[in-house]
Amino acid sequence: LDSPSTSGTERDVVGARRRVRSVTKAGTTRVETVDAIPSGYERSFRGNHGVFAREADGGVVAVAELSVSGMTCSACSGSVEEALRRVVGVQSVGVSLVTGRVDVTFGVTPGGERPEDVLQVLAQTVEDAGFDVDSSSLAADPSFDRPVLQVRLAIQGMTCSSCSSAVESALSGVPGVAEVKVALAMDEAFVAGDSTKFTAQDVVTAIEDAGFEAQIKSVETQKDEGIVHEIEIDVEGMTCSACQNSVEGILAAVKGVESASVSLITGKAKVTYMLSETKSRDIIKAIEDAGFGASVSQESQSSSSRNKTRESDYWRTLFRRSLMFTVPLFLLSKILPHTSPGLHRILMSEVWGVFLPLHQVLKIALATPVQFWIGRRFYVGAYNALRHGSANMDVLVVLGTTASYAYSLASVLFHSMNKHKYAKDYQPTDFFETGATLITFICLGKYLETSAKAKTSNAISKLMELTPDTAILVELDENNQVKSEQEILTTLIHVGDHLKVLPGSKIPTDGTVSSGSSYVDESMITGESIPVLKSAGDQVIGGTLNTAGLLHMKATKIGSDTALSQIIKMVETAQMSKAPVQRYADKISSYFVPIVVILAVTTFLSWYIAGRAGGYPSDWIPQGHNVFLFSLTFGISVVVVACPCALGLATPTAIMVGTGVGATNGVLIKGGDALEKACHVSCLVFDKTGTLTLGLPSVVDSLHLHPYMKEEECAVLAATAESSSEHPLARAILKYARDVLFGKVRDDSQVTFDTPEEVDILPGFGVICTVKGAAHAEHMARINLTPGSRNAR
Predict the structure, then answer these.
(1) In terms of Cα–Cα distance, which of 518, 530, 540, 512 is closest to 763?
(2) Among 127, 120, 118, 71, which residue's Cα sits nearest to residue 95?
(3) pLDDT, tens digit (0-9, with 9 covering 90-100), for 403-431
(4) CA–CA distance, 481 with 130 (Å, rounded to integer)
(5) In angstroms, rounded to a whole number, what is the distance separating the alpha carbons of residues 288 and 300?
(6) Is the pTM of this model over 0.90?
(7) What secondary structure does DSSP assign to 85-149, as a single string?
(8) Which residues are known catalytic residues?
């Protein structure tokens, strides 16, 4: 760096990574600075706008990271990738549909265009393709960052925005955490940060210390060397601690494995490994070669859905139990005393030994289980919230119901000690039914809320189920001929694997067709109802359906990199995002509980002071009451009315349900912001011909060229030719034939047609087949038709 060619450079060599930080003065370019470093060293620099360059094969390449908005599906990401590849000098392009990030690697020629100038060309290319580039959010060189730990967790116990704020605050306080997302409606959290400063267990501890329960869903670490992945394996055949130690030793010896822990009790092994050095199939094989059975734990993709279903069942049980006590309590308080004088006298009779009227003893007996047994969950939540200096909906529920219960109990004892029950105009002034009814309705609301969440999670589970469980792995020889094949789990597919896709089966992962041709139904991904012809060199998407021919493909993307996984992540990310109105509601709700308490105290003091000062007539006060008890009822009323904190819960629940229902119907919504803006939409523009269709092609017209052929016979022959095909057009022809033969009103879906012979499918053109005359005549006779005077074919 001290050479004359770089005399305008100040330098600072830093740390064990031998990082050189330079300040380039006028007259010295970045490329000249990099070229001044002797060959044999890894040479890279960070440029403006997230551009950096490094030595590659004797030259210098630059990597630009663009943040692109407007991509909504895999077709959009494909358009961006195709447009950028056409730019001169571009070597590779990587597009992430979920994050909107685009990585472009391109060559840098000394003395030629600067990387910053090429970046502008790339940005303009993306914009010309119809998308927007946010230049302010272009990322920096990832090789200068520390390893990034990403943890996704399921959280139990959050009931309102105050709870989610408490969790977010607790997670933000963990050293090294850089990004925190908490989704109240999904009961999930996402944490990312410096993996050298915290672990996934630290995150769980922070949440539990905040008074909530947490369970790790996924852990992933991104390092300079690549991505560190964690896998859970079911191990069979372990009988003692020696077996356990043996499996741990086997796993530790596998190249690329960073850590392995084996549990003899659960029969599971957790393995952390570098994706760039080893694969899950290698780890499974190592265990099997040692004589143990091994398989990837089918960590249920629908575990989140099951958890929410379990939570929904929990609240339904609480609601039913609460209803068993609240309904008779309500009848006893509001209905039965007014039905007949005789029943009223019975209820007012004194219970021997407790010196209280029968109806009050029954009220206490019915209200106490609701308050302290069924309502225990609210007390625990309120205690945890207050212990950490926050106030959530549980605090409000506990304040309102406890105040109502305590006031009622005090009122009953007060009246009993003063013997007010012997007065002719005595009227009970307890509110036992108020607290019980409030808890019952809150349980009902939570049950309805969790039921909506469970249905939304089922929508995501249905997306996950598009990917098949297994795939056929083939091994090729030097002449690219199939040497062997075996069935494996799709979770064990590696990039570069050659796979066989049978007709009628689903594409196991994203890849490229290496041989064969077939129509692939991509409607579940693209929305296009007509299958697309795929042949050698074409891209296929995991989860789509191979309708006709046999395909051989090469896997190019697996796991979370596939288009389907990115769509699922997009839906989950959308559900975790906050709409602008939700941020405003969360801000208000954070002050909601203190404001309610202040208003309740103010109301109580206002009535109490006014009563002491004679501000209202004394006959307003019920018999046996005093100013204090009378004023207290108004303060309690304020707290009770404010209990259901729907302010912070309505928006996230609406976003979750809306995005989930949209995903079920093939509409991907990128977040609450998009939903909020949707109310201002006045015009919709559809860019695809097949978007506004039923998704089921149908025959609209037919042309008969044979002079002796009737329309019915034409329909029979066409249906016979297509009877063994799964193509959507074939199904349309079969339906057309049934309509012609039996009418559109009658349901004859069970009617079958003959199987043709010598079938030859010509992709892109149609089908040629032979139908024997005798068989055709017999079939025509079965449906009461006479064939024409010729051979049917």
Answers:
(1) 518
(2) 71
(3) 889 888 888 887 777 765 555 555 567 78
(4) 43
(5) 23
(6) no
(7) HTSTTEEEEEEETTTTEEEEEEEE-TTS--HHHHHHHHHHHHHHTT-EE-GGG----GGGSPPEE
(8) 687
